[in-house]
Amino acid sequence: MLRIEGLSCGYGAATVLHELSMQVERGEVVALIGPNGAGKTTTLQCIAGHVPAKRGKTTFADEDLTARAPQERVRMGIAISPEGRKLFGDMTVRENLIVGGYSRPSGATAANLRRVLDLFPRLEERFGSLGRTLSGGEQQMVAIGRALMAEPRLLLIDELSLGLMPKNVDICYQALRKLRGAGIAILLVEQNLTKALEFSDRVYVMDTGRLVWSGTSGEARSRHDLADLILGHASEITA
Ligand SMILES: Nc1ncnc2c1ncn2[C@@H]1O[C@H](COP(=O)(O)OP(=O)(O)O)[C@@H](O)[C@H]1O
Ligand SMILES: [Mg+2]
């Protein structure tokens, strides 16, 4: 469904991603892992259209994304839960969620809100609370919920569990399991390697803006050198 070929992108004159190629198939869960500064966030932001491509081709459901603005990509079915969650602190949970549905007809809002609240019952209790009063876990639920308001076919999630209490990490993964069951593809950036490899079908490993390994999550679980690379205990993988 998502096909990236030879993608290079960066900020201003600096190129951060070099010749990246990856795919996500319909309904697939793919983990994107790598040490700090590898380019994971840049990759997701480039897919979402917030960082422009310098070279290469990206298609989604066989449509070329190159000239598509971020809001068009949302309409096509790509939604992102960004690193740091990026909620509006002075808006309520309800308002933050509604922002995510701007690409859908207003008649769809009520049903989409209901779906998000069924997925994250905690948000119903916090529905009128301001974004800045939420715990990290609640913020992550809102960020995922906001993305779901766009009815995506591909959900990009940047750092799902970073800074969350274990209980909230579990709640978020339970929700992702339901989304996967509903056929939504997920491209997941996750620093918790165990969680990432448990939950995903396939894995891409990045380092300094390049893909250095890809394979099934089962294969990745038996590769201790991947963990060493991601934890910064090794500067490259061995084979
Ligand atoms: N807004 C930006 N402007 C300039 N350089 C950036 C910006 N954001 C990230 N970078 C650089 O791009 C590289 C990749 O960063 P990033 O995609 O955030 O990595 P990751 O998410 O894997 O930690 C890093 O060297 C980082 O310093
Ligand atoms: Mg990042």
From TrEMBL:
GO terms for biological process: L-amino acid transport. Keywords: Amino-acid transport, ATP-binding, Cell membrane, Membrane, Nucleotide-binding, Transport. It holds the Pfam family ABC_tran. PROSITE patterns: ABC_TRANSPORTER_1 (PS00211), ABC_TRANSPORTER_2 (PS50893). The keyword Translocase does not apply. Residues 2-233 form the ABC transporter domain. The keyword Transport applies. GO terms for molecular function: ATP binding; ATP hydrolysis activity; branched-chain amino acid transmembrane transporter activity. Coiled coil: none annotated. Belongs to the ABC transporter superfamily. This is ABC transporter ATP-binding protein. It comes from Variovorax terrae.
